[in-house]
Amino acid sequence: MAKKKSAKLKARLPRGFVDRGPAELLAMEKMLSVIKQTYELYGFEPVETPLFEYTDALGKFLPDQDRPNAGVFSLQDDDEQWMSLRYDLTAPLARHVAENFETLPKPYRSYRAGYVFRNEKPGPGRFRQFMQFDADTIGAPSVSADAEICMMASDTMERLGIARGDYVIRVNNRKVLDGVMEVIGLAGDEHAETRLTVLRAVDKLDRLGVDGVKLLLGEGRKDASGDFTKGAGLGDAEAEKVIAFVEAGAETTDQTIENLRNLIADSKTGAEGVEELATMGKLFDAAGYTDGRVLIDPSVVRGLEYYTGPVYEAELTFEVKDEKGRPVRFGSVGGGGRYDGLVSRFMSQPVPSTGFSVGVSRLMAALTTLGKLGQEEVAGPVVVCVMDKDVDSLAHYQAMVQELRTEGIRAEMYQGNPKQFGKQLQYADKRNSPCAIIQGSQEREEGEVQIKDLIEGKRLSAEIEDNKTWRESRPAQFAVKRGDLVARVKELLAAQEDDRTKRSENN
Predict the structure, then answer these.
(1) Numbered residues of the known binding site for L-histidine
(2) Residue range 474-495: average pLDDT?
(3) Which parts of the sequence belong to the Aminoacyl-transfer RNA synthetases class-II family profile domain (predicted)?
(4) Do 22-369 and 382-506 come out as alike in CATH topology?
(5) Which of 2, 90, 361, 437 is the one with CA 20 to 30 A from 146?
């Protein structure tokens, strides 16, 4: 009987997740550095929270104990408590603040960057793991804290190279929408689920338009794939009042405020929200941000349940062409708002809070499109080739590597099979190495090493038509004294950097 072959394990990337290479990671690091500097300029300090939290700490807007995997990735630990991968960076911060409330300065201003996870259907541009970069102020009750974060969001966009006019920070207030909810009969805990559905429907205005939102406010909407999303079940009259609210924006802040006052005149909560917007408008004007950078806009409705006051979004307004030549816009690349009840869930006292979150991947894509953040060229290490495998020779090669590293030069000794020298140079090319160091027994006896400029070698080899000429010319390869190795490598790296700078300037 023939022995059954075991099936090989298939390498598969889970749906909704991506691998990231060095070029993308370096570009991300460059962008995050600018955001970090801007947040620190405003007095925010770093903090880090873990990827997992107890599910009940993530908030009532997330699954309850009967539905532990709805929207989040969850598991039970050894004492059968449900834990979930964090859905955002705000809920874990609330838990951290509550646990350390007595020792933290108040207001507490912090920032953090990290991956968050959504157990949702993946699709184009929708991932189950993505990075956010947040800044939050905990313990500041005045909307001046919200206004400051909006101004910081504006500064962040411009420091990243997004020109004024290519973005806008749109600001609204959840209390105003709560006033609308009161007017259409959706106040009270018994309507909490319907209110959340309304919020999420309006939050899709920029993507679905007014007609799409109307469907989600009513019976529901079927998307292009045939999937049906159940609506809020509002009647036509109630849906029209919600639409009137999101379309209340005018050319001036004063006119927008007046429109909102008229819409929610019968709601105390709504009136309070309008006056908070009016205060923020005056602060924006005093600081000079009402020149198109920051705009009061009733169409902004963040979809999460925990927002209790001002909400805001950073939206990119420039158009680009997709692969079919159609104009598209990136839309929102960040947002946030006031969440006064989130920390208070753990406390016996109210804790006012507000924060802003940048969607790192979407913002990176936008900056790349604008030419502000290209795929960074990753310079590889200097590769010291292994010509002889005896212990004494290996010790010589290792000494060269150490000398280069001591001087701050990335370097490595070739660790693959050294039988074929050409394979070593191919490896160095794939690593985008600036040069290779070559020393056989003859060079060692003469006290020399060969340095092969791989960057120049690629250029010259393109001009050589046959292998014989290539072997005879050994393009861009030269001999130096062993004691001059580090100095000559430094000179070569500096010359290559000058060439890259000149090419960049010419482009």
Answers:
(1) 88-90, 118, 132, 136, 302, 306-307
(2) 90
(3) 29-381
(4) no
(5) 361
